[in-house]
């Protein structure tokens, strides 16, 4: 006898998920009721009411005890909104050729529409926060979502990344300043070649030092695209926040990262 499938729904941050209730729902508490609620810490709380006000969860109580604009989800399992730490929210396939982002030649309007569509699909699949590493179109999209003009997850973005083409340390510091002034949440740095090209270093220690130290001065985290041990040793020496990918790392480099408190996001 086959077990019945378990249906899941994610707690969707912000009231975009409850748009049918309109502005009145934003004044009153919204209550989401489900047969099972997971708390994200490995615990099944059973049947619960989740009370939401102003886009934030304010209480989790036994089912049937909360009053407000009610959304009874029936026999589903409700879990906290998911977080994706590395996306490119605007990336998509070209509708004419099927090629990926790097081969496109499209208008800014098209890019923005694709990004908004991706944001909607992301939210509807239960991901309520993404770190988009990154493109400048992320910034107006983030603002539109924050002001509830379009539905989507909370966006943490790096804007345009530091690359070997950004220039010398002075030029890199200036780039970080431009991104900080534009309102980015984090600085993205490309410090190694693609894994398809061996993943070797593309930035000197001085360049990496400039990027990550300037990010710290501006109160921003720094995440570095890096694959091989030498690239990552430079990242650690520069006191950057974390490494993205790291697919070619050896144990000694991983232990160095752990000792120095540098995070690894495998992003496989």
> How big a fraction of the residues is strand?
15-25%
Number of helices: 7
Average pLDDT score: 89
Question: Gyration radius, to the nearest Å?
Answer: 21 Å
Give the SSE string.
EHEEEEEEEHEHEHEHEHEHE
Structural class: alpha/beta
Sheet bearing the most strands, described?
4 strands, mixed
Query: Which residue ranges are poorly predicted, with pLDDT under 50 across at least 5 consecutive positions?
Result: 1-5, 12-25
Major beta sheet, strand line-up? 5-4-2-6
Helix content: 25-40%
- Please give the alpha-carbon distance between the first and last residues: 36 Å
- State the total count of DSSP E strands: 14
Task: Provide structural commentary.
Helix content is 29%, strand content 24%. The strands form four sheets. Strands 5-4-2-6 form a four-stranded mixed β-sheet. A four-stranded parallel β-sheet has the order 11-12-13-14. It has a three-stranded parallel β-sheet with strand order 1-7-3, with no helix packed on it. With 268 residues, it is α/β, with parallel strands linked by helices. The two termini are 36 Å apart. Helix 6 (229-237) packs parallel to helix 7 (251-260).
């Amino acid at each position: 006898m086959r077990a019945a499938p378990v249906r899941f729904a994610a707690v969707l941050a912000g009231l975009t998920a409850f748009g049918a209730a309109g502005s009145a729902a934003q004044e009153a508490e919204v209550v989401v009721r489900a047969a099972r609620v997971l708390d994200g810490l490995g615990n099944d709380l059973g049947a619960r009411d989740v009370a939401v006000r102003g886009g934030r969860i304010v209480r989790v109580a036994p089912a049937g005890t909360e009053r407000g604009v009610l959304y009874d989800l029936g026999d589903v399992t409700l879990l906290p909104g998911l977080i994706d730490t590395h996306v490119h929210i605007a990336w998509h396939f070209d509708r004419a050729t099927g090629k990926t982002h790097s081969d496109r030649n499209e208008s800014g309007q098209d890019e923005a529409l694709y990004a908004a569509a991706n944001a909607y699909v992301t939210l509807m699949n239960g991901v309520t926060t993404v770190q988009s590493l990154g493109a400048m179109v992320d910034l107006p999209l983030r603002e539109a979502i924050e002001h509830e003009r379009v539905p989507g997850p909370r966006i943490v973005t790096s804007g345009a990344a530091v690359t070997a083409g950004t220039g010398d340390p002075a030029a890199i510091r200036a780039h970080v300043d431009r991104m900080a002034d534009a309102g980015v949440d984090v600085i993205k740095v490309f410090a190694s070649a693609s894994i398809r090209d061996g993943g070797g270093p593309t930035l000197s220690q001085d360049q990496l030092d400039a990027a990550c130290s300037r990010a710290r001065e501006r109160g921003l985290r720094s995440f570095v695209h890096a694959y091989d041990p030498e690239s990552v040793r430079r990242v650690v020496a520069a006191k950057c926040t974390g490494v993205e990918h790291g697919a070619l790392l050896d144990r000694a480099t991983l232990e160095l990262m752990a000792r120095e408190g540098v995070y690894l996001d495998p992003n496989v």
